[in-house]
Write a structure and sequence with these properties.
Blueprint: E1 6-7, E2 13-14, H1 21-36, H2 56-71, H3 73-87, H4 98-123, H5 147-160, H6 176-188, H7 201-215, E3 222-223, E4 226-227, H8 230-245
Antiparallel strand pairs: 1-2, 3-4
Helix pairs in contact: 2-5, 3-4, 4-5, 4-6, 4-7, 7-8
Length: 246
Amino acid sequence: MAKNGEIDANGVWLNSPKGDWAKAFRFGFFHTISAINNAGFDIMSGFSLMPYYTDYFVQICFITLFIIGGLGYPVLFDLKGYFSHKIKRKKSRYHFTLFTKLSLSVYFLVFLFGLATSLGFELTSTNIESMWNKLDSSGQNYFYGNVFNRLFGIFFTSFSTRSAGFFTVHLKDFSLGSTITFMIMMFIGASPASTGGGVRTTTIGVFLMSIFNMVVDKPRVRIFKRAIKKIQLICQVKCLELPLSL
């Protein structure tokens, strides 16, 4: 890690708070608010979190904040009720709401889709300038480090790109396929009543289930054994029409 005002090994200017506790507190406070609100603002460098590319503790902290902010307040409230139920050791079974089940399922399915798809595109890319193949100035080593470094770079980006806005790998270094994948994830975004953007995970979940039911010729859309009203299906389609038209 570079000192204040210096240039790190990758040529990235880093306004590091290292050694300055007052500055570290200010930076930590600012970036915690920025991350949990999926804002993407940073005051450390002009390259987001690239200077912390191999600092996995920092990245995991950011990912945790992305998830907390992106799941939505109703989901967090439901999870609070679940853990409270467990702590009190109640014998009755706790029942999550349909909203929580759908939000959590689609949220992590979108992440897995982005991770698997972008990883596939990067591993099969023949472009020498893509993040997986790019070499440093010496031409002897990979610019983005060893295999684990690059895998974690894709892992972090798959969490962040949907709505958080932080990055450890410059987006211009990803292949075209990965870029399109990230655009799809940005379009979907986070859960309703969250700090993230997008058309929302529940909208996509209900929309895809309605298409599936049309294919298998089922009269009613059912998710987690709960029937979805027709008016709700119409609302989901309407929510997709405007952003798609733009």
